[in-house]
Design a protein that fits this description.
The chain has 140 residues and is α+β, with helices and mostly antiparallel strands. 44% of the residues lie in helices and 20% in strands. It folds into two domains: 3-82, Orthogonal Bundle (Arc Repressor Mutant, subunit A); 85-139, Ferric-uptake regulator, C-terminal dimerisarion domain (Dna Ligase, domain 1). Strand 4 (86-91) and strand 5 (97-100) form a beta hairpin.
C-alpha cells in the first residue's frame, strides 16, 4: 500500500501538493533529507515551499508512516516505515554510515527486558564512533 492510500484510510486530506511530495518521498531511496525531497519536488512543481515539505513530513511522522533520525549532523533524515527496523553506525569524523542488522541488538534488548524490566523501542538506533579509515588516518 502506498502513503497516499494510508493517509486516506486514516482520514487525512491529501492535497495536490502533498501528493507530489509523497510521490518524491516514495521515489527516493532509504534515508533522505527534507532538502533532498524539496529538490525532487521542485522538478515537478516549483511553487511548493520547503515549509510545505516539512509540514508533510510532520504529518507522515504523526501517522507513523515514516521515521525521523539524527544521523550525526544538523540535518534530520527520514525513511519509510516499510524500510523496517534497522540501525546505523556513523563515523563522527567522515559521517560514513554503516547499516547494521536488527539481530545484532537482540541480546541487549532481551537483557534490558529481563534484568531491568525495561522494554526498549529499538526500531532505529544510531551509534556514533570512528570508522576504521579515520582511525588509520589518525595513526599515520
Amino acid at each position: 500500500m502506498n502513503l497516499i492510500q494510508e493517509l486516506h484510510e486514516r482520514g487525512c486530506r491529501v492535497t495536490a501538493q502533498r501528493a507530489i511530495i509523497i510521490s518524491a518521498i516514495e521515489s527516493l531511496s532509504a534515508h533522505i533529507t527534507a532538502d533532498e525531497i524539496f529538490k525532487a519536488v521542485k522538478k515537478n512543481n516549483p511553487y511548493i515551499s520547503l515549509a510545505t515539505v516539512y509540514r508533510t513530513l510532520d504529518l507522515l511522522k504523526e501517522a507513523e508512516l515514516i521515521t525521523e533520525s539524527n544521523m550525526g549532523g544538523s540535518t534530520m533524515h527520514y525513511a519509510l516505515k516499510t524500510h523496517g527496523p534497522h540501525h546505523h553506525a556513523v563515523c563522527r569524523k567522515c559521517n560514513q554510515s554503516i547499516e547494521l542488522p536488527s539481530l545484532l541488538f537482540t541480546p541487549i534488548i532481551e537483557q534490558l527486558k529481563t534484568n531491568h524490566n525495561f522494554i526498549l523501542e529499538a526500531d532505529h538506533m544510531v551509534l556514533f564512533g570512528i570508522c576504521w579509515q579515520c582511525q588509520k588516518e589518525a595513526d599515520e
